[in-house]
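#lab-general

N.A. 3:47 PM
ok so I finally got the sequence cleaned up, no stray characters, all 202 residues accounted for. can someone with queue access submit it? mine expired

B.Y. 3:52 PM
send it over

N.A. 3:53 PM
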Amino acid sequence: MLCSGSGTNLAALLAAERRGELGPATVKLVIVNRPDAGAIARAEAAGVAVRVLPHGDHLTREAYDRTLVASLRDAGTHIVALAGFMRRVTSELISAFPGRVLNIHPSLLPAFPGLHAQRQALLHGTRLAGCTVHFVDEGLDQGPILLQAAVPVLDGDDEAALSARILVEEHRLYPLAVRLVAEGRVRVDGRRVRIAEGPDAS
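B.Y. 4:20 PM
back already:
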C-alpha cells in the first residue's frame, strides 16, 4: 500500500484481512512518502513492513516511481493500493503493475476529481456524494471505475461531516475491491469493468 496520511483506509484493509475478508490478498508492505504519516504506526502495530521513501529525495516523479516499483517487487507485491497517497503516479508504476493499481477517491467519479472533493461537492450544491474505487491511469482520477458507493448530502453538512460519512463507505468498499481483484474476478475492457460472480470466473 502507498500512503501519505493517517492511514484509515490502511486500517480498514488490515481489519478486513484479520476477519478473512480480503480473500487471497494480504497487506505485505506499506510505503509512505512522509516520515510523519500516521499510517506508519498503524502498519507497525499490525506487524506489516514499512518503508519511508520521501519524494523529495528524487529529482523526478519517474525516478521516484522507479524506486517504488523496486521496493514493491522486492516485497512480492501483486496489487498496489493507493490510500491517501498524495502523489500523482507515472507510467513507471502503472506499467509495472498493469491492471493492478487501485485508488480510492472521495467522490462519485467522474464528478469532483482531484483535491478536496467533499468541499467541491458542497460548493456545487450536489445532493449525492460518495466514493469511488478505480484503476489508476495517467489521468487525474480518470481510470476505469471498479466500485462506487453513494451517500446523501444533508442540509446541515459541512466538509467534516460529509467527509466522515463518506469515509464509512470507503472503509467498506476498498477491502471489497481488493478482494475482487485478488480473486481474479475483475476484467477491464477499455473503460468498462466487468465483475465475475465467483473467483477466477470468466
